[in-house]
Protein: Glutamate-1-semialdehyde 2,1-aminomutase
Organism: Halalkalicoccus jeotgali
Amino acid sequence: MDDTTSRSVVERARAVIPGGAQTGLRAQAYDLGEVAFSESSGPTLETVDGEEFTDYHLAFGPIVLGHGHPAVDDAAKATIDDGVLYGAATTALEVEVAERVVDLLPSAEMVNFCNSGTEATYHAIRLARAYTGNDRVLKFEGCYHGWHDYVDISVYPPRERVGETHPESDGMLPEAVDHTEVLPFNDAEAVVEAFAEFDDIGAVICEPIPHSVDCLVPDEGFLETLRETTAENDVPLIFDEVITGFRHSARGMQHELGVTPDLTALAKAMGNGYPVAAVCGREDLMAQAGGDNTSGVVISGTYSGHPVGLAAASETLRVLSAEPVIEEITALGERYREGLDGLFSEHGIEGRVVGYGSVFSPQFGVTGEPQRYEDVLGLDEERFVAFARGMRERGHFFTPNPYKRQHLSWAHGEAELETYLAAADAVLGSLPVN
Ligand SMILES: Cc1ncc(COP(=O)(O)O)c(C=O)c1O
């Protein structure tokens, strides 16, 4: 069997894996030609054909220190040497990482580990519902919180479904969808009105910076209103910091914004690519999970607190706290945004470059500051795909989905910036002016 080309691997994948990749979003990479990866290092990805790309996808964001950061990988390997899984009682490593999260995040008084952001938001909502005794969840259009039925709603609704409750998947439980209320991001009044209208709100969940649609930045006062209104009604506010936590700040976006939620979901950059996630928050909320699995809130999982993920998290959080990683990737992000912005002007391209910190995204055919989901609906997908194609041909990898941001890691630097902007100059120069 020929495994030596990306094409042959993808062909085999299509026969045994739905869509030929583990997720539909991953399969979108094939829109620009089949690729199967076999190696990664620092800022670089390599395919089975030996083709190299600078990676701006970074697995949808977890890789914050660069692929294969030696200290993180060494910590994970050392843990495997000691023993892989115990699944009873606790370990010193669990305690150490939990203490670190408590030290870092303003909202964290207690911590439960799990393996994905989806699990973390699920747990957070269950804890909030148990506390309030209420069922309704408020979420915001354009925010993704994972694939479970409570939240995979109105993340990318088509224009005609904006303002409604739009399930993203077939097969979702109608009762779960009916118990979710969707509001526009940055609309403080809508939050106050929702609390006036519904007396059964059990949880409010929000990405403090919605990166699931590239980047929306919260208006001054929006998250503060969310905080005040939920506190007045004694309804837990959940920040989904799966992307923002540890990518934009070692102390979470909540620290940067000065808004402390009751519960926080963490994943992605927490482990620099290893599967580790957490729900953390106020002691009284979290303590509901301290029962014996027959009472209180059940939080469970064979692989929860897996030593390999936790070893990676311990080292990643240590590096993020001790080194100027966030400052440097944020400064570099600013230069990518400025550089792309300048190129858009130079080539007379209608569009804007959005982003925050180490995240950036060129958007074609739209101008102004996006405030809410509707503001990204009009972007020119074809042009973005043409841009992604030109960039891939020149050795820069990111997914050709215009709503999916590009990321930087600590392994990206001047050399990557220079080659990226030179390639972007050539590609943007080759697009027809609009
Ligand atoms: C903001 C946000 N929350 C939750 C999730 C779900 O995380 P996971 O894919 O680890 O389940 C994601 C994943 O992209 C995310 O971006």
